[in-house]
């Protein structure tokens, strides 16, 4: 099924830190599983110059070929819009360079509204260096000369609201967010954007006369919308997919793959699969039932909190926010 070039691509994704590592593992798992419901071709040249991930000819259903795109959605978009990690890494790098105590610091972030989304009141990542100006350098010198006193500092204006406090004798670093940051938009989130990107690729097949079905396999890469009881988002995965279908009627279905179900880990179990029928007809019932019943390998861990640049493969360690955790399939 896989060409030599494709095999090298998968091996590279699994053996190095790449953003494609998690999507590639999901992709390989589904390539293997889909062979049980029909014949498949991986990245077939159909004339668009940008082939679909998989062309499936099912053994059951309406008998039409199915062009499939496979993607995994992480919280990378959320992190990009809330670059607290990059800010804090640079903040504490400078504190350490100034040979100041690493404990006793407290950060308090404000929030702001950005295009229907509530985000942390920080400038874009590219503008973060501007925060460490002469005023901040003066603060570090003051703390250095008066280390037994309490000191406060604030960044404000131009969409930025941050309070920094130093308390002598403290052992820890503390971070608080004054408010709740989340998205209220069904379209301004990485799940919708991933679906739109894949839909645009599949639509090109219609322009060259492809009459088969178009579908997307959307996999859990650690995005909060995959966790049904998530408090981070007031919208739901179901609602995002419904809106996606209204704007992309060419897409017949979306198959979602979950590593948690009803807020419970599926560790040492198969990922949960859910079918979302966007065609509005019952003609796909048999095919969609077969897809929902695909047999996948068991999970070694869930994708909750997974880093967007994590390489995963059976026996290959991944990187998570919590040391010692990993996300991978068993063998």
Give the structure's gist in a few sentences.
With 331 residues, this protein is of the alpha+beta class. It has eight helices and 15 strands.
Q: Please, could you describe this protein's structure?
A:
There is one protein chain. With 331 residues, this protein is of the alpha+beta class. Helix content is 29%, strand content 23%. The protein contains 8 helices and 15 strands. It has helices at 4-15, 21-34, 76-81, 84-97, 134-145, 190-207, 237-247, 285-292; strands spanning 38-42, 54-58, 66-73, 105-109, 111-114, 117-120, 151-157, 160-166, 173-177, 182-183, 213-220, 253-258, 260-261, 264-265, 272-277. The strands form 4 sheets. A 6-stranded mixed β-sheet has the order 1-2-3-11-12-15, with helices on both faces. Strand 13 (260-261) and strand 14 form a beta hairpin. Helix 1 (4-15) crosses helix 2. It is elongated, with a radius of gyration of 23 Å. It starts with a helix and ends in a 39-residue tail after the last helix. The relative contact order is 0.15. Mean pLDDT is 84; it is low at 308-327.
SSE arrangement:
Layout: H1 4-15, H2 21-34, E1 38-42, E2 54-58, E3 66-73, H3 76-81, H4 84-97, E4 105-109, E5 111-114, E6 117-120, H5 134-145, E7 151-157, E8 160-166, E9 173-177, E10 182-183, H6 190-207, E11 213-220, H7 237-247, E12 253-258, E13 260-261, E14 264-265, E15 272-277, H8 285-292
Parallel strand pairs: 3-11, 4-9, 11-12
Antiparallel strand pairs: 1-2, 2-3, 4-8, 5-6, 6-10, 7-8, 12-15, 13-14
Which class best fits the helix and strand makeup? alpha+beta
Supply the number of helical segments. 8
Span between N and C termini?
20 Å
Instruction: Find the count of extended strands (DSSP E, 2+ residues).
Output: 15
> Any low-confidence stretches, pLDDT <50, length ≥5?
308-327
Main sheet specs: 6 strands, mixed
Helical residue percent band = 25-40%
- Report Rg: 23 Å
Order of helices and strands: HHEEEHHEEEHEEEEHEHEEEEH
What is the spatial order of strands in the main beta sheet? 1-2-3-11-12-15
Shape designation: elongated
């Amino acid at each position: 099924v896989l060409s030599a070039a494709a095999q090298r691509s998968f091996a590279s994704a699994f053996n190095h830190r790449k953003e494609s590592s998690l999507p590639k593992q999901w992709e390989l798992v589904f390539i293997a599983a889909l062979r049980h419901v029909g014949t498949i071709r991986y990245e077939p040249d159909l004339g668009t110059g940008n082939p679909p991930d998989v062309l499936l000819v099912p053994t059951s259903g309406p008998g039409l070929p199915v062009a499939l795109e496979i993607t995994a959605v992480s919280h990378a978009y959320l992190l990009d819009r809330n670059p607290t990690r990059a800010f804090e890494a640079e903040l504490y790098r400078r504190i350490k360079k100034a040979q100041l105590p690493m404990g006793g610091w407290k950060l308090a972030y404000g929030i702001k509204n950005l295009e229907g989304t509530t985000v942390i009141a920080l400038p874009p990542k590219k503008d973060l260096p501007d925060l460490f100006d002469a005023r901040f350098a003066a603060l570090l010198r003051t703390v250095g000369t008066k280390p037994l006193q309490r000191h406060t500092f604030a960044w404000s204006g131009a969409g930025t609201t941050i309070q920094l406090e130093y308390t002598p004798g403290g052992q820890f670093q503390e971070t608080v967010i004054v408010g709740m940051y989340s998205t209220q938009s069904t379209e301004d989130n990485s799940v919708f954007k991933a679906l739109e990107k894949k839909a645009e690729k599949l639509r090109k097949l219609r322009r060259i006369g492809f009459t088969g079905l178009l579908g997307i396999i959307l996999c859990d890469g650690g995005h909060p919308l995959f966790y049904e009881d998530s408090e981070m988002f007031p919208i739901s995965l179901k609602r995002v997919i419904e809106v996606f279908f209204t704007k992309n009627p060419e897409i017949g279905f979306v198959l979602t793959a979950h590593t948690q179900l009803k807020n419970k880990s599926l560790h040492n179990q198969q990922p949960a699969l859910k079918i979302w029928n966007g065609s509005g007809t019952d003609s796909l019932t048999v095919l969609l039932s077969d897809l929902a019943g695909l047999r996948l390998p068991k999970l070694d861990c869930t994708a909750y909190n997974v880093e967007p640049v994590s390489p995963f493969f059976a026996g290959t360690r991944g990187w998570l926010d919590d040391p010692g955790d990993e996300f991978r399939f068993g063998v």
